[in-house]
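Q: Could you write out the predicted structure for this multi-component system? I'm mainly interested in how the pieces pack against one another.
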Amino acid sequence: MPSKYKVLLVGSGALGVVAAYTLEYNGFAEVTVVVRSGYKKASTEGYKIDSIQFGKIESWKPSRVVPNVEEAIANGEVYDYIFTSVKNLPDSPTPCEQILEPVLKANTKATVILCQNGLDIEKPFLEKFPGHVILSCVSLIGCTNIDCVVNQMTPDNVQIGVFENPTIKDKEEAERKLDEFISIYKMENGKNVVKKDVNPRLTRWQKLVYNAAINTSTALTDLDCSRAAMAGCKESIWRPIMREIYAIAKSDGYILPPDLEENMLRISDGLFYTPSMLVDVRLNRMVEVEVIVGNPLRIAQRNGVDAPHLSMTYHLLKMVQFRIMEKQKIITVDDSVREFKNPDAQDNVL
Amino acid sequence: MPSKYKVLLVGSGALGVVAAYTLEYNGFAEVTVVVRSGYKKASTEGYKIDSIQFGKIESWKPSRVVPNVEEAIANGEVYDYIFTSVKNLPDSPTPCEQILEPVLKANTKATVILCQNGLDIEKPFLEKFPGHVILSCVSLIGCTNIDCVVNQMTPDNVQIGVFENPTIKDKEEAERKLDEFISIYKMENGKNVVKKDVNPRLTRWQKLVYNAAINTSTALTDLDCSRAAMAGCKESIWRPIMREIYAIAKSDGYILPPDLEENMLRISDGLFYTPSMLVDVRLNRMVEVEVIVGNPLRIAQRNGVDAPHLSMTYHLLKMVQFRIMEKQKIITVDDSVREFKNPDAQDNVL
């Protein structure tokens, strides 16, 4: 065991900062945090944290803050763990595996922890970085990070497991890495919940029952969960999509618990909760449509499962993604040929 | 034949102003226009019109401008025709038939012209106002009305027919009214296109092929037609919805022409056209979801036609309608119990 494990943390949203703080607080890890936006403030003033788990911290800086992954390995640094909580956007100009490529090529023994939503998120890693252990981390936490001011409202609650990985011969080594990471992340006094996940794909299918129905429809309509329910979507949208997820999971070999559907339908009752995808839409950030909807839909198509509600959801969200990518100037459209000069005020009859 | 026909025009959008101008220009009608918003300007300064059909008109006032329907009949006025081009919103606090109720109760012989999108829009009129002839007017026109400045970019093009109406005994009388209205609306020199519609329900099913697929999906995603097509929705969204409309129309006894689907898919190619429903969403005005999607969907349910794409479209648009109605304070939601204070900045993981 090294004096301290070296962890590279990529994705400095609130969740990432809480994870970095937890790892250094426990004392077994030295964390380098990649901060792509807000680097200057994070590296000079550090973070102000108000946490249900740690109390109020006026100013905290991780062992090291770097502006990008390249800088994190500029001097041949070696990392035991690469923890990533960036949004998983395969359709963006810089998908997650591309961001991590330099460090994974340089650190062939590093274990990757993907703390992200969605299904089949490990697949690009298995392909591009064979031999790396890839861990699944499914998180439940309510927290915000606004300009280096972090608020954590609910305790950290994660399930961590080993992704199925045909590129690894030594399965026991993968299990050891899992146990090791859990041991350096879990707090002594039970202040965070860190569970070993023996079936990460099942866990991810279960979380998709919520995400594929509720994140998506609230993002498409700009309504929080409670307003969406008031507008009648539980029976007309959420339940039909959830049932399609059940059927697709089944075709993939995973039987989801029957009571999960009802629980997920009720979990946000009265909370006026804003799912992450709706937050992204409101902030004009790309949405995780491919890993939350696209990947399960492709499994449905492969396995011949009829999923028209999920298909509509996917393709409407791809249109929203197009709109966001144009606003972010990732896509450029020449509309100089448009017919009418003032289309927004048109009394159109079509 | 009276010296001049008396027409009450309700709905003073660009289309309504063009219709009123046309009727008075032709010289056979005296038009009273109900102007609910912008009454003061319309009744004093009148309209400035720039029209492909009539040229530039500095200032034009209809024979009479009134602020509401009640005022239009305050002195026992009798109207031969009630032409309405207000949005058809059965789910609003003041649906169309309620707006027209005073004048129709007072004018039991008046013929109603519904110049509006959607299917089954005549049904509330048949029920509430039996004995009135109800005409269908399906319009194609590109025009705007911004604060009494009217621009007409494409020629007026309407199809007018008689709605099937079991409350009327004298079918020939209805046909006479249709011919009469066409004769006072049609311009001599062919400057407007006014066609007699022998099968208005078929015409409306045909227009729905466009409206139910294209207005809806562009409204849900805030993308004009060309951007929507670039985002891939022609095959994934528009065609599946169009095929469901074909199937529902068939179950209703109407066989739509096979080439219509392809024509409607291509009709807006390259135009960056903003369909009326997207215009409404952008301006936070209620959308015509019930007459464009709800009514055909109810026929599908009644006739046992599977229409999951149309169903998703309908229920997502009902959520958008909820959002718009809350913004317009038609609906009030008490969200004081919301869990997090700053939901828009949350790094939510659900």
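A: Regarding packing and overall arrangement: The radius of gyration of chain A is 21 Å.
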